[in-house]
């Protein structure tokens, strides 16, 4: 797989494309955002679903079900907030209705 068009494929002897600093900044910002979402997900669902008293090395059935539901709800809310934010942005710019399914981080 190519990252910014570099490596990962046969480029026929041509030199790799130059990576602009804007592309690097965009990739870094996206990585930071996804890392933040992951950390908030882990923090939130761990606090809600896993007891602070670790009696077993593995999750029990109740904890596993709770984690599954928590993650599902987290991403559902994340998608809804993303859609709402996109609608607000388009309304502020005077745009029309948003495209269906747009606005989710994942």
From TrEMBL:
Alphabetical GO biological process terms: protein insertion into mitochondrial inner membrane; protein transport
GO cellular component: mitochondrial inner membrane
Keyword annotations from UniProtKB, A to Z: Chaperone, Disulfide bond, Membrane, Metal-binding, Mitochondrion, Mitochondrion inner membrane, Protein transport, Translocation, Transport, Zinc
Record bears the keyword S-adenosyl-L-methionine: no
Subcellular location per the Swiss-Prot or TrEMBL entry: Mitochondrion inner membrane
Membrane topology per record: Peripheral membrane protein
Any Pfam family the entry gives: zf-Tim10_DDP
Domain Tim10-like: 24-87
UniProt main location, coarse: mitochondrion
Superkingdom: Eukaryota
Subunit-level organization: Heterohexamer.
Domain comment in the entry: The twin CX3C motif contains 4 conserved Cys residues that form 2 disulfide bonds in the mitochondrial intermembrane space.
Function: Mitochondrial intermembrane chaperone that participates in the import and insertion of some multi-pass transmembrane proteins into the mitochondrial inner membrane. Also required for the transfer of beta-barrel precursors from the TOM complex to the sorting and assembly machinery (SAM complex) of the outer membrane. Acts as a chaperone-like protein that protects the hydrophobic precursors from aggregation and guide them through the mitochondrial intermembrane space.
PANTHER family per record: MITOCHONDRIAL IMPORT INNER MEMBRANE TRANSLOCASE SUBUNIT TIM10
Protein name (Swiss-Prot/TrEMBL): Mitochondrial import inner membrane translocase subunit
Organism: Pseudozyma flocculosa
């Amino acid at each position: 797989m190519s990252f910014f068009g570099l490596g990962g494929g046969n480029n026929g002897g041509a030199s790799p494309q130059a990576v602009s600093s804007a592309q690097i900044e965009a990739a870094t910002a996206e990585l930071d955002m996804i890392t933040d979402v992951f950390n908030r997900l882990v923090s939130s669902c761990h606090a809600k679903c896993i007891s602070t008293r670790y009696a077993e090395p593995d999750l029990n059935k109740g904890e596993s079900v709770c984690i599954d539901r928590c993650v599902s709800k987290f991403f559902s809310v994340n998608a809804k907030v993303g859609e709402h934010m996109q609608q607000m942005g388009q309304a502020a710019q005077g745009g029309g209705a948003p495209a269906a399914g747009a606005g989710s981080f994942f």
